[in-house]
Amino acid sequence: MDNRLTFNEDVENYDKWRPTYCEELVKDIMAYSQIEQGKKAIEIGIGTGQATSPFLKIGCELTAIELGKDLAEYSKLKFREYKNFAIYNTTFEEFECPDDSIDIIYSATAFHWIPEEIGYPKVSKLLKTDGTLALFWNRPFVARGNDELHQNIQRIYQKYRPSNTKLIENDTERYNNISKNIQAYGFRDVVFKLYHLTRRFSSTDYIALLNTYSDHRSMPSTTKEFFEDEIKEAIIKFGDVLNVYDTIDLYLARK
């Protein structure tokens, strides 16, 4: 299965546990883009609409793109009260609309699914001159060097999903690379900002959150069951409370 379609398997769980985006981030996008009623926007990878409401409420004409059929149907129903909303069950690569017609194109924790050599040029083609590109990602982080619970969880991850990749909460190299890529494809006035949030989960709720991620859902069923059992047991031993630290990186640019 295309990993992008794993999000389509349990839509209600996805909508319940995937975080929305902080008010400060939304304000920064609105201020940079000067988006307002009647302006045209495209959201790439709407999912269940974690980043959608602010653009609809401001009155812009929002077109959402979503590969997952169930996700698209869920969001269509969720935002049915808005006359300024349309959704297409397709990929961004296959989506069609007139060139130089869009005021803002944004994507929340989804643009990495599109090959950059396709995604950035197409965004540029669709945007009006001075139109805005807004890309942002929420990356939950569950490691603290002085936190025994988080150390235990990392050992469980290494047991069932071993990786030599070092998790970096504030990944300066990543931020610089994305900013340079945006500029390399001809965008200008690039702005980068970071936001930090903390969420609290019980053991059951944390497992529900994990099941909204493609790499977790694609684990072999037996391995996944053992992995989840050990994660739950670890959290319960520490009062059944786990803090998850969200780092959100935002990139703004103009055509």
In short:
The protein has 255 residues and is of the alpha/beta class. The chain is 39% helix and 25% strand.
Strand order of the largest sheet: 3-2-1-4-5-7-6
Rounded to an integer in angstroms, the radius of gyration calculated over CA atoms is 19 Å
Can you count the helices? 10
User: Element order, helices and strands?
Assistant: HHEHEHEEHEHHEHHHE
Largest sheet entry: 7 strands, mixed
* Beginning-to-end CA distance, first to last residue: 35 Å
Task: Give the low-pLDDT segments.
Answer: 1-8
Oligomer: single chain
Structural class estimated from helices and strands = alpha/beta
Amount of beta strand: 15-25%
Q: Shape, please?
A: globular
- Helicity range of the residues? 25-40%
Count all strands and give the number: 7
Overall pLDDT metric: 90
Describe this structure as you would to a colleague.
A 7-stranded mixed sheet has the order 3-2-1-4-5-7-6, sandwiched between helices. The radius of gyration is 19 Å and the shape is globular. The model is unreliable at 1-8 (pLDDT under 50). It has helices at residues 11-17, 23-33, 53-57, 69-78, 116-126, 148-160, 172-184, 203-210, 214-217, 221-237, and strands at 40-44, 61-65, 85-88, 102-108, 127-141, 188-201, 242-254. With 255 residues, the protein is an alpha/beta fold.
